[in-house]
């Protein structure tokens, strides 16, 4: 078989109760990774038919191949885990050396949230090391399998305790130098449902939003799923729920506890689905099993936007999302509680830690 074939098109005819659906799966094999995407050309609107069709599709869905050269993941893992860039002087210097001349580091905790240039980033990293005062480390809990960019979830650890959690996104340039970073720690004050009440009050006069229009697809790569949900589907609850698995753990750091079922996730998404709020995905990595992306929330009538980070993982068998971590930036920088906690307990970054290992994967 000629391996330089540009694409292979597989047509599957699936018959479901009371309807027919034609499904096309295309593979772009012009790069190192064949990226499958399933498009439903015509399908029944009934819930029963959709469920049967999804089950049939799961049989034919090819599993995406992880990129052969995980440049971003390997570099970030080395800097964070091997040379300890966030807790040692030598590691901080190595991190800066891996950056492009015009690197931009968005530290969404700091008052001066954007640091531009290698020298500025070096000073920022040295300040991070100094602030820990040798009393702890930053542990990488999860990392996406991206090559041009990746994100990682982390936790402050000190002795037999662990504390502050956060997420960092790293993007490389064409020379595989760090070009852009966004880092957001969890807020210590978690407003929970007060967030919904506040947003509803601010947007109460917003006009109804027209229903989104899109072509239904079933992407299977984690990064493609994220882009499909937030660049195409954005706002369709039922279509979004197709991509969440029964084993979902959804951690939104506005809340104390994670969501642990599809029903809870459905309610959560529904609560935040009202006019006047626009969610815009900005940068996204190219992860197959795990993905990280940056975003902004724009509120009608407000000039200021809220920046955030999300980290998603998919089940390798079902290709459904089974883990989410969302973190919005604090409206106040640096946040008062976070600043005080870092001064009092620099190794943990929180007022009271939890036993080490009690939150597997930083959950």
Briefly characterize the structure.
This protein starts with 6 loop residues before the first strand and ends in an 8-residue tail after the last strand. It is 26% helix and 35% strand. The strands form 3 sheets. Strands 4, 5, 6, 7, 8, 9 and 16 form a 7-stranded mixed sheet that branches.
Topology:
Blueprint: E1 7-16, E2 19-28, E3 35-42, H1 47-60, H2 71-82, H3 89-97, E4 99-107, E5 114-116, H4 118-132, E6 137-143, E7 149-158, E8 161-172, E9 178-185, H5 194-202, E10 217-219, H6 222-233, H7 237-241, E11 244-252, H8 262-271, E12 277-284, E13 290-299, E14 306-314, E15 321-328, H9 336-344, E16 354-355
Parallel strand pairs: 4-9, 11-15
Antiparallel strand pairs: 1-2, 2-3, 3-10, 4-5, 6-7, 7-8, 8-9, 8-16, 12-13, 13-14, 14-15
Helix pairs in contact: 3-4
């Amino acid at each position: 078989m000629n391996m330089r074939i540009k694409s292979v098109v597989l047509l599957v005819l699936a018959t479901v109760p009371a309807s027919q659906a034609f499904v096309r799966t295309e593979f772009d094999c012009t790069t190192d990774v064949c990226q499958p995407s399933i498009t439903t050309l015509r399908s029944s609107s009934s819930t029963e038919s959709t469920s049967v069709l999804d089950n049939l599709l799961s049989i034919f869905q090819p599993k995406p191949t992880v990129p052969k050269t995980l440049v971003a993941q390997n570099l970030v893992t080395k800097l964070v885990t091997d040379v300890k860039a966030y807790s040692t002087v030598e590691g901080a210097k190595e991190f800066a050396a891996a950056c492009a001349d015009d690197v931009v580091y968005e530290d969404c905790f700091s008052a001066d949230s954007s640091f531009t240039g290698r020298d500025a980033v070096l000073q920022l990293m040295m300040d991070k090391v100094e602030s820990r005062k040798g009393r702890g480390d930053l542990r990488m809990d999860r990392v996406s399998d991206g090559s041009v960019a990746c994100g990682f979830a982390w936790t402050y650890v000190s002795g037999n305790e662990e504390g502050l959690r956060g997420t960092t996104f790293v993007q490389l340039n064409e020379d595989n130098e760090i070009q852009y970073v966004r880092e957001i720690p969890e807020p210590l004050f978690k407003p929970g449902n007060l967030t919904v009440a506040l947003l509803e009050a601010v947007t109460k006069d917003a006009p109804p939003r027209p229903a989104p229009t899109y072509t239904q697809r079933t992407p299977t790569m984690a990064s493609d799923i994220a882009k499909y949900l937030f660049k195409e589907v954005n706002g369709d609850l039922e279509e979004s729920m197709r991509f969440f698995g029964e084993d979902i753990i959804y951690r939104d750091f506005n809340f104390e506890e994670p969501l642990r079922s599809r029903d809870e996730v459905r309610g959560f998404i529904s609560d935040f689905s009202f006019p006047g709020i626009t969610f815009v995905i900005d940068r996204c990595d190219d992860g197959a099993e795990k993905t990280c992306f940056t975003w902004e929330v724009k509120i009608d009538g407000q000039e200021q936007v809220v920046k955030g980070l999300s980290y998603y993982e998919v089940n390798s068998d079902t290709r459904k999302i089974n883990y989410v971590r969302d973190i919005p930036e604090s409206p106040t920088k640096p946040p008062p509680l976070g600043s005080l906690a870092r001064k009092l307990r620099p190794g943990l970054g929180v007022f009271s830690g939890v036993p080490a290992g009690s939150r597997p994967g930083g959950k």
